[in-house]
Write a structure and sequence with these properties.
Length: 421
């Protein structure tokens, strides 16, 4: 049932998802085609979450240009102003609700500017979709507009992570795949640009990530691995660049069973019988973590309010330790939600989550759930965007054996500490 209004919003917009995607490309300048306030909000939002400068420019559409300009002038002027100061390897041009309602021809404008500048354009109106779809559309646009078609394959794998994966999670996944003898390229790669390393903090361009030349050559990948339901289509688009490429997709990479599936698929792909000893060691640690935390998490009533792909992974890990998902609230629709073992799966906002907070043990959502946690005396575990309360968001890891074990201990300690206060 559609709600007539949101009283406590959870959803984030498509342009914000697009921004995150372009921030994973080296020396990229994300260019938001819309009003100045839209870009300013996104910049402050992610700057506070990552505690680092965020590169973004805007075409600064105002009430005059909104009426008389079809996008040509404001986009061209913005590009001219940007390139007078810095030299981006890529300009990521994405729209907002205002410019989509106007019907600006961003493809036409990009084609005019294309000979001088590498530009990827994508339609991301904020009156539809959300964070996941804006990100996936942008990754898909990079594949369609930059990747060259190939007929040969090399000993490399393209990893496409979903929007809620942290920089450390992307890095960890790359390292795990490398253990099987592959060169790995993540698209996008925020593990090098938003990981909080101490470097040049000017924030004029994205600081690092996958380069444009590397993106162009992804068509020669032996396989593409997509993580999360929202980016499945991106993997299919990359496979269309080379009929020899294989596509391995995983909705879930958290918990014992899902991690087993991931590593078994990698062993099969790589034609090896056993994974690296460190993988086996972490599997045993996760088994022990499941035993240790079961006494606290077993039977816990858990309320989740996050992006769908993130929520599916969290629920997979916690239910293996005996947790019960009392309710799962998602800001957008997704078939990934079918993987959550709960009778109460709702497309809505934090107001919907509040209805299930009377009798529960653990509440997992973003920073904006803090007020509800105080009101209902909840044990609160903060995940997703934004998290303004704690530092080191970029270094959280809830994936595979290692991340799952750490999440279980964090959740159990959170519940235990709350019960004794």
């Amino acid at each position: 049932m559609l709600k007539p209004l949101e009283k406590n919003p959870l959803k984030l917009s498509q342009p914000m998802g697009a921004l995150l995607a372009f921030l994973g490309v080296k020396n990229c300048m994300p260019l938001m085609h819309g009003a100045q306030g839209c870009a300013s909000f996104s910049k402050v939002f992610f700057t506070r979450h990552f505690n680092d400068p965020i590169a973004i420019q805007t075409t600064a559409v105002n009430d005059i240009t909104a009426v008389i300009d079809g996008g040509d002038y404001s986009i061209s002027e913005a590009v001219k102003n940007i390139t007078a100061k810095v030299t981006p390897e890529l300009i990521g041009l994405f729209t907002t609700g205002l410019t989509e309602t106007k019907g600006d021809d961003i493809k036409g404008v990009a084609s005019v500017l294309q000979p001088e500048h590498d530009i990827v354009y994508v339609h991301t109106p904020d009156f539809e979709g959300g964070l996941e779809s804006g990100y996936a559309k942008s990754v898909g646009a990079m594949i369609e507009q930059l990747v060259k078609s190939q007929e040969h394959i090399e000993q490399k794998i393209t990893l496409i992570p979903h929007v809620s994966m942290t920089p450390l999670e992307v890095e960890s996944l790359k390292e795990q795949i490398e253990l099987f003898g592959w060169d790995v390229f993540a698209l996008p790669d925020i593990s090098e640009s938003l990981d909080g390393h101490l470097g040049k903090k000017q924030g004029a361009l994205s600081s690092n990530g996958i380069s444009v030349s590397q993106i162009q050559e992804l068509g020669s990948s032996y396989a593409v691995i997509t993580i999360g339901n929202s980016v499945y289509g991106c993997g299919e688009k990359l496979c269309s660049k080379n009929k020899k490429m294989q596509h391995l997709h995983f909705d879930i990479i958290g918990g014992l069973r899902a991690s087993d599936t991931f590593y078994n698929s990698l062993m099969s792909l790589s034609n090896v019988s056993y994974p690296h000893p460190s993988v086996i060691r972490w599997r045993k640690r996760l088994q022990d973590a499941l035993l240790d935390t079961h006494f606290i998490l077993g039977g816990c009533q858990i309320v989740l309010a996050c992006e769908p792909d993130l929520m599916v992974i969290l629920s997979s890990i916690l239910t293996e330790a005996g947790g019960k998902i009392k309710a799962a609230v998602s800001p957008t629709k997704s078939s990934a939600l079918d993987n959550i073992p709960s009778k109460n799966i709702i497309i809505g906002d934090l107001g919907d989550a509040e209805e299930f907070l009377d009798e529960h043990t653990l509440f997992i959502t973003n920073f904006h759930g803090e007020r509800l946690a105080h009101k209902y005396h909840s044990a609160l575990l903060t995940r997703g965007f934004p998290n303004y309360e704690t530092l080191g968001n970029q270094l959280k890891d809830d994936t595979l054996y290692e991340g799952s074990a750490k999440l279980l201990f964090e959740a159990a300690n959170c519940v235990e500490t709350h019960m004794h206060h």
